[in-house]
TrEMBL record, chain A:
Region (Disordered), start-end ranges: 1-23
Signal sequence segment: none
Domain of life from the UniProt record: Bacteria
InterPro entries, per database record: MetI-like, MetI-like_sf, Sugar_ABC_transporter
Main location: membrane
GO CC annotations, alphabetized: plasma membrane
Protein name in UniProt: Sugar ABC transporter permease
Span of domain ABC transmembrane type-1: 102-307
From TrEMBL, chain B:
Species: Mangrovihabitans endophyticus
Membrane-crossing residue ranges in chain numbering: none
GO molecular function: ABC-type transporter activity; ATP binding; ATP hydrolysis activity
Any Gene Ontology CC annotation: ATP-binding cassette (ABC) transporter complex, substrate-binding subunit-containing
InterPro entries cross-referenced by the UniProt entry: AAA+_ATPase (IPR003593), ABC_transporter-like_ATP-bd (IPR003439), ABC_transporter-like_CS (IPR017871), ABC_transpr_MalK-like (IPR015855), ABC_transpr_MalK/UgpC-like (IPR047641), Mo/tungstate-bd_C_term_dom (IPR008995), NA-bd_OB-fold (IPR012340), OB_MalK-like (IPR040582)
Keyword terms, alphabetized: ATP-binding, Cell membrane, Membrane, Nucleotide-binding, Translocase, Transport
Highest classification ranks of the organism: Bacteria, Bacillati, Actinomycetota, Actinomycetes, Micromonosporales
SUPFAM superfamilies tied to this protein: MOP-like, P-loop containing nucleoside triphosphate hydrolases
PANTHER family: MALTODEXTRIN IMPORT ATP-BINDING PROTEIN MSMX (PTHR43875), TREHALOSE IMPORT ATP-BINDING PROTEIN SUGC (PTHR43875:SF15)
NCBIfam families, per the entry: PRK11650.1
Protein name: ABC transporter ATP-binding protein
Length: 324, 400
């Protein structure tokens, strides 16, 4: 039965289950049979190409920008390049512009994701329940998501341009994109319009996971439509909802293109990505720009951590039991 | 508790198919009625209409004397047990069972008391705080039952509640369901495709096919006096043997030989204006090893080569193949399709017999077998009608 290459000693050890359990972890590892070790080696070899690509395209840029963030490095004054430890972080974190942008980003993230969740859920329910013209409904709902963000943003900008835009003329006689509150509202609106279909698509996958029998049982048990939704559907869909929220929150936090096209960050409407871009690409300040990128990376990592650890978001398809 | 009356209840779907064709059924208060039939016979649709999960296209449904066609499921005061159990995965066993009571805004102490009682009856007390995912199949099934009984509803509807259990547990749960129903005395409608379940559980069994009622009656009546080929073949395991038979001058020619027509049969055949080609049906237990029969003269004895002997301990199933080809009728094709894979037609008919354990019949040898002629059924192959029932008053209600 046992693998021929296994030495008698390890076989005996493996057979006495009780004895093996008492062994310290390290001994147990050392006692791996030759077959197991080869299997493990093969596992690493099979992973290696993917791991190498990951290192090249993500780990290297991250580490390089972290390295840059520890230096005073402005391309306008290349001779003043100098290693300054965390001085750049102190500069950014004590700067009012950064915190304004941070606040704007949080506002856009929270408001747009919250609205998208509600609208997306409604859309998903409609798409899930539609019996007639299901394909047409789904396709038309997904159109906004299929349009390039920059293109959509330009059409929003034209729509809100005073005197020529149809929305600007309809709703106000000022220039809504030049005032902070209205500009932010328009940015959020553009975000919502663009990504609600994505949210709906993710939620619809979750809806498909709710067994029909469960809803039937609930209606037999006396639940109204709303009670069926809140007490049966939502709890069963929770994993799908959390995944959708996680994706969208991470996405929304990095908001860039809509702001770039609509206001270009005027009137304090910049997001953190915007000011990082301005410092890095326009200001050519590699040190400060990289510091901001690293801070954004940290913020995104924290969001992901909170979702995964605190709310128990699991990767789609993995069961609760599978999470260790 | 209440009676349930289906009055010409019909279900048609928007695509034009009719799943249930105007069925009439009266279920008395406290009765345990089984709807049985092959898949697609309309039994689940009928149950869903009683539950209110499907609209009734036409006809009337009355529960406790009141028309409930247009009432939502929650207003019908009926509980249902699903094949998948449909337990809420996010709730514990206790919360699952308390859910209908909570929705009914019952006081907390009252809920605790009722859930406690139901859990005790179903032996779930120690599992009350576990989630369904951590229960075995049998325990989940009991939780589903518990959720139904805590409400003390007017009726229970059960949609194949035992199909997801393994064979042994199914037998065990079957007796438990039966005992529980007798104990509570609640009107119960139970859907199954398993004729054994139907026979063992129900006060009355309703055999359905293609959206029509075939026969309604107590299990013994269905077994002894099936109104047509379909019921005869569907009820009983191993099922009834069907053989081609031809009416001759004074005899009935069948693959085993010529059976003398006695007065009773002759009278029945004349009364029914029967065709010359018939299907002869006889159950396996109506055969016996001729060596073990005292009055062999009263029946019909024939000799045939034995294919196979299956010894069950209490008796022996002996398989023969007899010359003359299998019986042909539309109903039989339906049955074969339901049993999975229509038999490959060949020129020999298979015969299953159930003989005493003392029989010394051996595989590969010729055996002398006695057949109880009084127990044969004759069917009209085109309509499937049981001709041998004509003379006596019809058993149960035979629908179109």
């Amino acid at each position: 039965m046992s693998v021929s290459s296994t030495t008698p000693a390890t076989t005996a050890e493996e057979l006495s289950e009780g004895g093996r359990r008492e062994l310290p972890q390290k001994r147990a590892k050392a006692a791996l049979s030759e077959g197991k070790r080869q299997e493990r080696r093969l596992g690493w070899l099979l992973c290696a190409p993917a791991a190498l690509v990951m290192v090249a395209v993500t780990a290297y840029p991250i580490l390089y920008s972290f390295w840059l963030s520890l230096q005073r490095y402005d391309l306008k004054f290349p001779s003043e390049r100098e290693f300054v430890w965390f001085a750049n972080y102190a500069t950014v974190l004590s700067n009012g512009y950064w915190w304004t942008a941070f606040g704007v980003t949080l506002l856009i993230t929270v408001v747009s994701v919250a609205v998208e969740l509600v609208l997306g859920m409604a859309l998903a329910l409609v798409m899930h329940r539609t019996l007639i013209g299901r394909g047409l409904v789904r396709t038309s709902a997904l159109i906004p998501y299929g349009i390039v963000t920059v293109v959509a943003a330009f059409s929003w900008r034209y729509a809100w341009t005073p005197s020529t835009g149809y929305l600007a003329n309809l709703l106000s006689d000022g220039a809504p994109l030049t005032e902070r509150a209205s500009a932010l509202s328009i940015i959020i609106l553009a975000e919502i319009w663009k990504t609600t279909p994505f949210m709906a698509l993710l939620l619809m996958a979750g809806l498909a996971l709710v067994p029909e029998d469960l809803l039937k049982a609930a209606s037999m048990d006396g639940a109204s439509a709303w009670q069926r939704f809140t007490r049966v559907m939502l709890p069963v869909m929770k994993p799908a909802i959390l995944v959708a929220l996680l994706f969208r929150t991470l996405d929304a936090f990095r908001v860039f293109d809509n702001i770039y096209v609509l206001t270009n960050g005027a009137n304090e409407t910049s997001s953190v990505s915007m000011i990082a871009y301005n410092n890095l690409m326009k200001g050519l300040n590699l040190g400060i720009g990289s510091t901001m990128s690293v801070l954004i990376f940290l913020a995104v990592a924290i969001i992901a951590f909170v979702f995964v650890k605190l709310f128990g978001t699991a990767a789609p398809g993995s069961s609760d039991e599978g999470r260790r | 508790m209440a009676d349930i009356v289906l009055d010409k209840v019909t279900k048609s779907f928007p695509d034009g198919t009719t799943a249930v064709h105007g069925i009439d059924l009266e279920i008395a208060d406290g009765e345990f009625v089984i709807l049985v039939g092959p898949s697609g016979c309309g039994k689940s649709t009928t149950l869903n209409m009683i539950a209110g999960l499907e609209d009734i296209t036409s006809g009337e449904l009355r529960i406790g004397g009141q028309r409930v066609n247009d009432r939502a499921p929650k207003d019908r005061d009926i509980a249902m047990v699903f094949q998948s159990y449909a337990l809420y995965p996010n709730m514990t066993v206790r919360e699952n069972m308390a859910f209908p009571l909570k929705l009914a805004k019952m006081a907390k102490e009252e809920i605790d008391r009722k859930v406690g009682e139901a859990a005790k009856v179903l032996e779930l007390t120690e599992h009350l705080d576990r989630k369904p995912a951590n229960l075995s199949g049998g325990q989940r099934q009991r939780v589903a039952m518990g959720r139904a009984i805590v409400r003390s509803p007017k009726a229970f509807l059960m949609d194949e509640p035992l199909s997801n259990l393994d064979a042994k547990l199914r037998v065990q749960m079957r007796t438990q369901v039966s005992r529980l129903q007798k104990q509570l005395g609640t009107t119960t409608v139970y859907v199954t495709h398993d004729q054994t379940e139907a026979m063992t559980l129900g006060d009355r069994v309703v055999v359905m096919r293609g959206g029509h009622l075939q026969q309604v009656g107590d299990p013994q009546t269905l077994y002894d006096r099936p109104v047509n080929l379909f019921v005869a073949g569907f009820i009983g395991s191993p099922s009834m043997n069907f053989l081609p038979a031809t009416v001759e001058e004074n005899a009935l020619r069948c693959p085993m030989g010529e059976l003398a027509l006695d007065d009773r049969l002759r009278r029945l055949l004349t009364a029914a204006d029967a065709p010359r080609q018939l299907v002869l049906g006889i159950r396996p237990e109506h055969f016996e090893d001729a060596a073990l029969v005292d009055q062999a003269g009263k029946g019909f004895t024939f000799t045939a080569p034995v294919d196979l002997v299956e010894s069950m301990g209490s008796d022996k199933y002996v398989y023969f193949s007899v010359e003359g080809g299998p019986a042909v009728a539309a109903d039989l094709e339906d049955l074969a399709a339901d049993a999975g894979g229509a038999d490959v037609p060949h020129d020999r008919a298979n015969l299953v017999t159930r003989l005493s354990a003392e029989s010394r019949v051996r595989g590969g040898q010729e055996a002398r077998i006695w057949m109880n002629v009084d127990k044969i059924h004759l069917f009209d192959p085109s309509s499937g009608r049981n001709i041998t029932l004509q003379e006596e008053e019809p058993a149960g209600v035979a629908a179109s």
